[in-house]
Design goal:
Helix content is 84%, strand content 0%. By secondary structure, the protein is an all-alpha fold. The two termini are 28 Å apart.
């Protein structure tokens, strides 16, 4: 998923300079996700899934 995300960021901003900050943030979030409490992680995922439904309903 990191490769797909980095290619998307590169395409979106038309620059290679934004790929490294994206990969740093991606790595940090991956480590954070691996160490968080599972209940909290599911709550965060449910929240963002709910937020993604808002543009689809509009």
């Amino acid at each position: 998923w990191g490769l797909y995300g980095s290619r998307f960021v590169q395409f979106l901003f038309k620059s290679n300079k934004v790929v490294r900050p994206f990969l740093v943030i991606y790595s940090f979030v991956s480590i954070l996700g691996a160490t968080l409490d599972l209940g909290l992680l599911w709550d965060i995922a449910d929240t963002f899934n709910g937020l993604m439904s808002i543009p689809n309903l509009i």
